[in-house]
Amino acid sequence: MIRNQWYVIASSDEIKEKPIGMKRFNEKLVLWRDKAGKVVCLFDKCCHRGVALSKGSIVHDHLQCPFHGLAFDAEGKCVLVPANGKEASVPKHYFVNKYTTHEAHGFIWIFWGDTDKIQSEPSFFNNLYGMHYATKKDPWKAHYSRVIENQLDCAHVPFIHKKTIGRGNKTMVDGPKVVWKKDDQFYMYVYNKLDDGSQPKKPNELKEKPEGSQRLEFIFPNLWQNYITSKMRIVGAFVPIDDEHTILYLRFYQNFINIPLIRPLVHWLFMKFNIKVAHEDRRVVETQRPIISRLNIGEKLFQADLPIIEYRKLREQLLKEADKSAEVS
Length: 329
Ligand code: FES
Ligand SMILES: [Fe+2]
Hints:
- This protein has 329 residues and is of the alpha+beta class.
- The protein has helices at 144-151, 157-160, 263-285, 306-328, and strands spanning 5-11, 20-24, 27-33, 39-43, 57-59, 62-64, 71-72, 78-80, 98-99, 101-104, 107-112, 132-140, 172-182, 185-193, 215-219, 223-229, 232-242, 245-254.
- The protein has two domains: 5-117, 3-layer Sandwich (Rieske Iron-sulfur Protein); 132-320, Naphthalene 1,2-dioxygenase Alpha Subunit, Chain A, domain 1 (Alpha-Beta Complex).
- The protein has a seven-stranded antiparallel beta sheet. Strands 2-3-4-9 form a four-stranded antiparallel beta sheet, with no helix packed on it. Strands 5-6-7-8 form a four-stranded antiparallel beta sheet, with no helix packed on it.
- The longest helix has 23 residues, at 263-285.
- It is elongated, with a radius of gyration of 22 Å.
- It holds the Pfam family VanA_C.
């Protein structure tokens, strides 16, 4: 996992006023909404004797440990040790670590790293405004880097998805074309075709498709969009649980059905299909070794893997930068 990045970690509707525990980045976290509705995220371990704070409750807008009643504010500072009496001051070293949170577009982000490295708000797709969506959580037994790379992989489609989205035996891959749009965001255009005996076209022989055409978009570190048409998209957030587990938050967006009564049924049907397709991938991605992808792991990549190579290059760079800043601080 790359430090000093904003990561989507949950869907907004999962976080309520009641504290909830979840594992992310190999750490146990507790999240809840304070009185103002803002999402708070602390380490899920009481500094007194290690109990999971997610088993506690909110009392006067503080999270109270169920064991001996220590109360923590939204910064993780302990504000009450009941055994010492409510008049006693609480020593400064009574605290639990916290993460900075951000909520937008129905997702919760945390800044995973050092707060002094926060420069801006998290990036998101700017072309989903006004669309309706449905979300499904899908657990994978794989590192999030492998799950992401699968969504950037054009050559697998006619094999893994031969009965669904990969029908037609388009095994030959022209390009693909990768275009960086921002420091942390690229588009990729897929040009799969029947093997007609020709040589695959090189990426630089291909042009960007016109605006509105099908493309894939990726935003570091963990957001992906399949821009199918202006009216229909699939978005994935790849949420790291630990080195061997990821939750794929899969969303279907559309704006062609506006009738509220029919919408849930349409969303359900599309999500059923999208999850079926994702499970075609999951079956093989879970077998990939090494578990964690890096730039140089001895894989024999070919031209069609260009988007994966682009992903790995920036990932490697960000990992190095994060290491460097850890050495300095
Ligand atoms: S373990 Fe939390 S108050 Fe004692
Ligand atoms: Fe796939």
